[in-house]
Amino acid sequence: xxxxxxxxxxxxxxxxxxxxxxxxxxxxxxxxxxxxxxxxxxxxxxxxxxxxxxxxxxxxxxxxxxxxxxxxxxxxxxxxxxxxxxxxxxxxxxxxxxxxxxxxxxxxxxxxxxxxxxxxxxxxxxxxxxxxxxxxxxxxxxxxxxxxxxxxxxxxxxxxxxxxxxxxxxxxxxxxxxxxxxxxxxxxxxxxxxxxxxxxxxxxxxxxxxxxxxxxxxxxxxxxxxxxxxxxxxxxxxxxxxxxxxxxxxxxxxxxxxxxxxxxxxxxxxxxxxxxxxxxxxxxxxxxxxxxxxxxxxxxxxxxxxxxxxxxxxxxxxxxxxxxxxxxxxxxxxxxxxxxxxxxxxxxxxxxxxxxxxxxxxxxxxxxxxxxxxxxxxxxxxxxxxxxxxxxxxxxxxxxxxxxxxxxxxxxxxxxxxxxxxxxxxxxxxxxxxxxxxxxxxxxx
Length: 445
Known about the structure:
Layout (H helix, E strand, L loop, with lengths): L10 H32 L2 H37 L3 H28 L1 H7 L5 H15 L1 H16 L3 H25 L3 H25 L15 H10 L1 H25 L1 H37 L3 H38 L3 H14 L3 H16 L3 H26 L3 H26 L1 H4 L3
């Protein structure tokens, strides 16, 4: 089925269009999940705790790629909707150069400060060294990882989501095979896990460069870039919500790790790590849908096709609600089996993880709408509202919940587990208010 941004989208056509983006995000999430599985089962609990401690910092750096992708693709897709393909390709080319330069600078800074940051996150003794080993290798591949995150959105804007999916599948399989060999067979430990992930990121970031550089039949192609500082500024401000969301979530994960380490020691961090791995995959469905749908929203906003904008909005809201309910049921049903996959070697840790996951699972009822709402306003080129939603959801509500609820609920650890659910409920209310308040300005209802 040949699909264009200007088409009318039924549920079937919308599903076909966004499916590659959903699968792309799922396979991107596999990086951390696969590393965690092999390190937990083949290396050791301390190394597994170290991976979980430093990973949020790695994701903070990588989130700049999401910012460039979501913010930039919204501008590019809107420009395509306005009928100016030449400018759209110029913007795209300049943003790719900016991502490489920015990613390199962030990599250097990350490697320089990896040890003091590991200590700041609570690492002690050997765990500090483990954090430094894993973090240094992963951050070395950060420019490619940022490009991969950015191209996920631009492949959709180019109406080539399937090619983006193929690249991500190859990158994900490289990571999986690499972990199996380097960690499972040759027992290179954390070094092997980090190398496997870095190789996957290099493929995911560099292969799209070759595709967009050569002549292709997509809507986008890399050409000789011109400095477009206003576009870069607009990209950063428009994509700031995704940046803020990822940074805030990483900071919140650090705080969760701190609380759980205080309450339950290394087992608490390991249990939370397992829950986050499953959460990465589940939430990847919401994020992937939002990434896939965003260029459609931007294009129709630029083309002033309000009827199709209404159609996309209604179908998206319904899809998020149904998917959230199904995910919650699935999470409750699989809490024990999924826990056993990662930490089945320790009965008490398995039980702690399964209990935490049952509390956590209710958040999926609300997180889909919250993620879509932020992405929806980014696609409408309203970065301010999108940033407000992301900032308050991931930083204000989450931090308040994880700091206060353990003081109010006994045992304390249950207060930690339920914190994310309370935060998502509050964010759901805020998202609903903004979606209702802005409906007439953008004509999506």
